[in-house]
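Technical annex, item 7. During the second reporting period the consortium partners agreed on a shared format for inverse folding records so that results from different sites could be compared directly. Each record opens with the tokenized structure and is followed by the designed sequence. A conforming record, contributed by the partner at site C, is shown below for reference.
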């Protein structure tokens, strides 16, 4: 039975007196400070639960009379109080209130106290949901639930935490589409869009997991990956450099202190999924959202738009369709990786000769001499300086450079102050996808992976508090036809 507010206040005073007595005893006994800290926190949680009970009691029982008019219908009060469980950060409460339906035993259509308290749709408080999901977007559901239980002594089940993530992801998807634009005075001179793909380990369908045939053969993988397409949009000031400047950074592997930093970076990820029987391409969805984001941040198209990608043909096709006005630039780090492949066909790995070979050819590329580099590599084939698998490697690099030559005018890009490395996309793939979705032993469904990508993206964008408030407001509107106070 719920206590009254007066009873709650009296009980909380008794609890505080007990805490004072404990502190006096701990002081006289020379108790270790960490033990005092833990016990004090535990007892303060009990005080919080008592006061929260008192707050609920002060709101009444939601009795609006024998009948209640709602949308032209007459609803009747239940014959007895109905109880609902509410799990707060202080512990579990049982809230007893009158509910209304067209007839006894039918679906509850109204609960005035629920609306008065702005209770959530399920039994978990918004604060508990917020704290739980902050943990779960960073670590596994198991670890997130365990961490919360260690801190508070309570936590939802892992399954409930996953369901929370699904609901939060629905809000995150809408929040992403209705997000505001950054203040124009905080934007850089250039607008940059970048995209990349990262595989997510998928859980096999049940029919494939229950195998009636032979055991998996040697080398056969236990799971398959599905691509998550990760994109980012940010603005940045121009940064004019020379080939020597870039080489200096690459060789020292150190970012120059005067290099401008990206402003208001926003990352997002989409996976291919089936909706109402139709396959929705994650790649197309991502580039459509990148195009919308670029338009929202520069509706007058006054900024130079840069699109940084690797050499995947499908991504360049999307760039042409959705970001056609952009200056397409092939990520210099993917170019550099292939220079090392050729160098190691000729020189020992980690040797100074290999490093000198890469430095020479990277300088040529940065000076706009792509044709000269391709010609050098072709001579390796014509003069039979490489053979076997090495020959295949060199040919693959030649093909890669020839296919992407239109996006390798690095001398022009450096002179114009454009960025030439897609480190933002690479970092987004690592932080958004790999660091969470590729932890040991993890397997995902498409819906589960997409939900985590949506919520984790908002968290990494530094907009978590805004998302939580948006989630509460939209759910309250759906539940009670009003926004939360």
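Designed sequence (site C submission):
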């Amino acid at each position: 039975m719920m206590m009254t507010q007066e009873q709650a206040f009296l009980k909380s005073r008794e609890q505080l007196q007990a805490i004072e007595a404990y502190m006096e005893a701990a002081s006289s006994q020379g108790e270790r400070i960490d033990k005092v800290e833990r016990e004090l926190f535990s007892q303060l949680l009990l005080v919080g639960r008592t006061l929260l009970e008192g707050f609920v009691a002060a709101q009444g029982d939601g009795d609006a009379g024998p009948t209640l008019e709602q949308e032209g219908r007459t609803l009747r009060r239940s014959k007895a109080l109905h109880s609902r469980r509410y799990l707060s950060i202080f512990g579990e409460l049982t809230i007893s209130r009158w509910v209304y339906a067209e007839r006894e035993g039918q679906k509850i259509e109204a609960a005035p106290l629920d609306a008065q308290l702005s209770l959530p749709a399920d039994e978990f408080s918004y604060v508990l949901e917020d704290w739980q999901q902050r943990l779960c977007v960073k670590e596994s559901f198991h670890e997130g639930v365990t961490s919360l239980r260690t801190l508070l002594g309570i936590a939802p089940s892992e399954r409930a935490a996953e369901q929370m993530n699904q609901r939060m992801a629905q809000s995150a998807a809408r929040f992403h589409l209705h997000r505001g634009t950054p203040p124009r005075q905080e934007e850089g001179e250039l607008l940059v869009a970048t995209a990349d793909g990262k595989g997510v380990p998928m859980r096999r369908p049940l029919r494939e997991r229950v195998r009636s045939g032979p055991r998996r053969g040697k080398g056969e993988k236990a799971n398959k990956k599905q691509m998550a397409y990760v994109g980012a949009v940010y603005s940045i000031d121009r940064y004019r450099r020379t080939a020597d400047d870039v080489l200096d950074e690459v060789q020292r592997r150190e970012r120059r202190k005067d290099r401008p930093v990206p402003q208001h970076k926003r990352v997002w990820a989409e996976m291919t999924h089936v909706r109402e029987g139709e396959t929705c391409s994650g790649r197309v969805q991502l580039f459509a959202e990148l195009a919308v984001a670029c338009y929202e941040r520069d509706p007058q198209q006054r900024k130079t738009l840069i699109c940084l990608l690797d050499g995947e043909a499908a991504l360049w096709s999307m760039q042409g369709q959705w970001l056609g006005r952009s200056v397409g630039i092939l990520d210099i780090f993917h170019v550099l990786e292939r220079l090392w492949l050729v160098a190691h066909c000729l020189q020992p790995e980690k040797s100074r000769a290999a490093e000198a070979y890469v430095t020479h050819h990277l300088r040529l590329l940065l000076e706009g001499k792509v044709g000269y580099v391709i010609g050098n590599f072709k001579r390796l084939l014509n003069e039979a300086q490489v053979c076997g698998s090495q020959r295949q490697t060199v040919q693959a690099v030649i093909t890669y450079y020839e296919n992407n030559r239109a996006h390798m005018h690095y001398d022009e890009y450096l002179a114009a102050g454009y960025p030439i490395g897609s480190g933002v996309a690479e970092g987004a793939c690592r932080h958004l996808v790999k660091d969470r979705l590729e932890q040991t032993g993890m397997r995902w469904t498409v819906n589960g992976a997409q939900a985590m990508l949506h919520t984790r993206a908002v968290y990494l964008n530094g907009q978590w508090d805004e998302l939580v408030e948006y989630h509460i407001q939209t759910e309250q509107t759906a539940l009670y036809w009003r926004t939360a106070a």
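The two ends are 28 Å apart (CA to CA). The chain has a mean pLDDT of 91. All partners now use this format for quarterly exchanges.
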